[in-house]
Design goal:
By secondary structure, the protein is mostly helical. The chain has one domain. Helices cover about 40% and strands about 0% of the residues. It has two helices and no strands. It is elongated, with a radius of gyration of 13 Å.
Length: about 55
């Protein structure tokens, strides 16, 4: 059976960037630069997202 485009499994596995972006958005709405700052803070600088990633 063909998978529908809305099937969440089509997006798995998540890339590290996508995983951290979703974590940053989990508790409240954020926009570009704030997402980058949140990911940097949560990962203690180990993951850095560039503007092109968002």
């Amino acid at each position: 059976m063909a998978k529908r485009k809305t099937d969440p499994e089509l997006y798995l596995p998540l890339t590290p960037a996508m995983f951290h972006i979703l974590l940053a958005l989990a508790d409240r709405e954020r926009h570009g630069y704030h997402i980058m700052q949140e990911v940097d803070e949560r990962t203690e600088g180990k993951v850095r997202l560039g503007p092109g990633t968002l």
